[in-house]
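Example record

Each entry pairs one chain with its bound ligand, flavin mononucleotide.
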Amino acid sequence: MKIVAFNGSPRGAAGNTHIMVENFLAGASKAGAETENILLVDKKIGHCRGCMNCWLKTPGKCVIQDDMEKLLEKFSADIIVLATPLYVDNVTGIMKDFLDRTIPRLEPFIERDENGECRHPVRTGRTPEFIVISNCGFTGMEHFQVLKLLFRRIARNTGTSILAEIYRDGGSILGNPMPVLKPFLTRYNRLLQKASEELVKDGRISDRTEEKLKNPIVPPEQYLKSANKYFAAELQKLKKEE
Ligand SMILES: Cc1cc2nc3c(=O)[nH]c(=O)nc-3n(C[C@H](O)[C@H](O)[C@H](O)COP(=O)(O)O)c2cc1C
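Structure tokens for the complex follow.
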């Protein structure tokens, strides 16, 4: 089984999303999957120009010469992980550019799916199943509402399904080096590894692991208090420097 992850965080390997993806892929790899972790920020990905050449003049091929052609080849994997931090209730601009540039995978014709909804056929006839990984700065799972719907729609549009979704609220804590947090973060990282091990071995994440993954890493009120304390201290430092 081949799993390829695309991470749309501008912070790349220094980001919280990266910590989630790395742990998830580590578990999958331990369970026998072949994995690849791609940081989109390190790739050259231009905005889609909407020229339609990939549909009409050079079917399946974009006019922009950048890293996207090679990245589209990765859609031969069994599973792709779409990973992004939440930015303004949505995916990052990097992830959106990447998603827009997957359009050459589709034919221009419009067909109806089994529910009568329109979509374009996929040239290769298949899209890998999706796993969605995201984290956000606020506490509360409601912040992922837009993302959940967005990826569900993209899966439908491309004739695939979502195998698993892992959303981490209060995720700004993931890369925090404070020793007091270490046991809590280690426990969460192990859960991510367990989730992917289950997924590779059993084809799904168990209900128990899914539930555990949703538990707050630290109590939400404590998280918010620490975050506000941190911001106040940083702003105070700035004032002193002036
Ligand atoms: C431009 C910007 C917009 C953001 N928008 C939201 C948001 O709408 N809701 C939220 O909870 N967090 C938001 N965040 C916080 C990030 O989701 C959070 O810091 C996350 O841990 C970043 O992940 P990364 O380190 O992988 O980039 C935003 C951060 C930035 C920089």
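The beta strands are 2-7, 34-39, 79-85, 111-112, 118-119, 129-135, 162-168.
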